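Course assignment 3, question 2. Fill in each field.
Student: A.L.
Task: Predict the tertiary structure for the chain below.
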Amino acid sequence: MNQQKQNGNLIAIITMFFLFAMISFVTNLAAPFGTIWKNQYAGANTLGMMGNMMNFLAYLFMGIPAGNMLVKIGYKKTALIAMAVGFLGLFTQYLSSLVGADVDVFNMGAYAIKLNFIIYLLGAFICGFCVCMLNTVVNPMLNLLGGGGNKGNQLIQAGGALNSLSGTLTPLFVGVLIGTVTPETAMSDVTPLLFIAMGVFVLSFIAISFVAIPEPHLHKGNVKEEKFSHSPWSFRHTVLGVFGIFVYVGIEIGIPGTLNFYLADSSAKGAGILFNGAAIGGAIAAIYWLLMLVGRLTSTVISGKVSTRTQLITVSGVAILFILCAIFLPKSVGINVPQVVYDPIAKTSEILTEAGVSETEIAAIIADPSEANLQKHEASLTAANLKVSDIEGSLETPKVPMSALFLVLCGLCTSIMWGGIFNLAVEGLGKYTAQASGIFMMMVVGGGIFPLLQQVISDSVGYMASYWLIIAMLAYLLFYGLIGCRNINKDIPVD
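Answer field:
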């Protein structure tokens, strides 16, 4: 019987890991889809980010209801409903490729908002409901299957590693399918991806239907539903942890988001990278997410021996030091961009090819990129709407401020914070864990609020100065690890 139970738990753990990957898969579709809409609306960044915002906004409305669903219908049924909702959300986005492209709904400044865009946003919002429910299921279930404590955190971190891997691979997969995004690129160009995603949800629904998932707090049969005498809000460490999740998501999104803007800004206010700043900024910011994967894998290995509390205290303190270094290092202290991030020859060849320059001339320019030789090809470059200075800039290995390196390294620290905060905040909650999970999911909306606030600050006092907000938020997490995570309400019955 024990062996059977262990096998059942292993299957349940694998299932939760898969759902963790699905969360990232659905969430990270919004960014590449957003580039399509951005280009259709003449490069409007705000409109391009609307799909991502709708994903986050859904957490605010679905967090607590998702937690209540765990209590009333259990983990398995909640996961199945999430799969069905995800399918509906993706299908709605698919509909945006079929109808509404010629129907104006209202004007937003200089832009006439089309019906198909509204349909897409609705689909993104529905998908947000899906990932909220999946998050609500996965985190407490992995903590439960791990037995709570360090082992519970170990499983959450392992699942988080797959989440990060899925988040890294999804944009790459989408990029292969849609190729170069132009103003003519439409949602109809990504319908194969949408069909694949919908197929994954159908297969997931079928697979989960046959998996036995533990339901420790689900009321069955004629057992009268217990009316809880308390709630997660009765536990101080949970309340402080709820705010910790709210703060953490803002930190996770705000660090690479503002870094990207900083590196892409070629003015004196930004990093001052004159050529290809946006591409370099995006690539370096991506390293942050890669380091999050590394951090979660590391935490998975050590969590059996190093307590969750110790890990949270350590990474919060180290992240504060990293950001202090980033703030106080002069912008003039820089490092060459690694070739793996920016290859001058490959980039120049790409620019010339896209501009329609012949292969012969491209080979001649690459073979001798001197100013004298470039002047010889000036006529061809001009015909391709390029300047000699453009090619000189693309061939130059750019430098980025050393501060960017310290900000990227923060990915190692933020990687384990979600699992750590969640693990500490639900410690000793017992039957109140499911309700608490829903509250935590609602707090993911912090990923939309704090980065916006940081951007407002950066517009006023500068990019690096805006990271004082991140330091204040990290200081709170340090406080939570040192003091706030202690359960002082052990007198409340939780069985």
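Instructor remarks: Residues 23 and 488 are 33 Å apart (CA to CA). The radius of gyration is 25 Å.
Grade: pending
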